[in-house]
Amino acid sequence: MADRTAPWDIPPSWQPALEAARGRGTIIVLGAVDSGKSTLAVVLAQEARRAGRAVAVVDADIGQSSIGPPACVGMARVTSDVRSLEDLRAEAIDFVGACSPLGHLLQCAAGASAMARAALNGGAETLIVDTTGLVSGPSARALKGAKIRMLDPDVLIAIEQDDEVEHLVAHYQARARPTVIRLPPSRSVKQRSREERAARRQQKFAVCLAGAKSIELSWDDAPAENGPWTGGDPVPGHVRAYAEERLACEVLYAARRGDGISLVVTGRADPVGLRALGEGFGGNASAVDVSALKHLLVGVLGDRGQTLALGILEEADFGRRRSSIFTPLGDPSAARGLRLGSIRIARDGTQLGSNDPGAAG
Question: Would you kindly state where each structural domain of the chain is located, as residue ranges?
Fold first, then answer.
């Protein structure tokens, strides 16, 4: 049974969820912002552990992460008594690159799947998945539906004050699995203001970047997986000059790629000229404004595509084809790639701005 001395207000109506946690399988927790999802996740994890299960938690709440830094999906095993998900140290993270799932649905679903797979491959018998507070509208249905298909849970737990989560779970009611359990929120849920949420993200980014230093990474050794400008063959100067005429802006870098040409420019490229340039190169042309790369949050990837550390892209040297990254990564030689995010942050973790999805690549 759940620990009644812990700082949790556990309503009697939560008992079906506690019973579900004592068995093996995957449980996904759904609920709006400040509905108590993280509290329920840690309660379920403790219940499973005390039932003798090997337990792991996947924290897919990228905006208010408890396990690992924001803009990431984190995973940790629960091997002792904990009072909060904050007490758990991330054993693996997957970099999404944003603090909101809107515009990043694929990355969120892929990150949750990667961390669930890591937990199950590591021996977890019971897996608890905490999710974002996005529960309204078609984006919520698309994201939650994709996660449910990819994670194939045994149980869905919907925390709802009224019926705000019902449109996400109602169509599972007639199926053999997953089982749907509806719960009211805990009365002890703490509400956070927008300012408190931003301050918490800043503090967690700062902790993540503690001890960071600047390193240089070659584009050949560590290309950006979602930044086509780090690949391809650089074009000669006269081609860049021609591109500047068509785009009506300065072209800092241009490279041919399999489906056209990628450019880094200063300012906004003329869209008509960009289309014509793409046609001239037998495919597409994409132009990235260099301002979108300044202070960009990135994930530093290992040789299997796993996230080794977070970093800040502080400079791109287009002549030497190298990136300067501020990161706590201990061994720069382990870096085999970068994943570009869509938010820009300072070294102290303060968010400086955000890019439109895909603006950096």
Answer: 12-208, 209-361
DSSP secondary-structure letter at 304? T
The Cα 183–Cα 28 span in angstroms is: 13
Phi and psi at 278, nearest 5°, equal -60, -45
Q: Is the pTM of this model over 0.70?
A: yes
What type of residue sits at position 282?
Answer: G
Residue 190 has what pLDDT? 75
Other residues' Cβ atoms within 10 Å of the Cβ of residue 1: 10
Question: 82 and 3 in contact (C-beta within 8 Å)?
Answer: no
pLDDT in tens, 114-172: 999 999 999 999 999 999 999 999 999 999 999 999 999 999 999 998 999 999 999 99
Q: Which fold has domain 12-208?
A: Rossmann fold (3.40.50)
| Total Cβ atoms within 10 A of residue 239 | 17
Closest by alpha carbon to 58, among 73, 47, 72, 68? Answer: 73
Give the helix, strand, coil percentages of the chain, each rounded to 5.
30, 30, 40
Residue 293, helix vs strand vs coil: helix
User: What is the pLDDT at residue 141?
Assistant: 97
Q: Do residues 51 and 22 touch, judged by C-beta distance below 8 A?
A: yes
Q: How far is residue 94's CA from residue 299's CA, in Å, rounded to a whole number?
A: 8
The pLDDT score that the predictor gives to residue 7 is 57
CB contact at 8 A, 314 and 326: yes
Residues in the chain: 361
CB within 8 Å of 206: residues ≥ 6 apart: 348, 349
| Residues of the chain under the 70 pLDDT cut | 1-9, 188
Q: Helix H segments across 28-129?
A: 37-50, 105-121
The amino acid at 264: V
Report whether 292 contacts 360 (CB < 8 A): yes
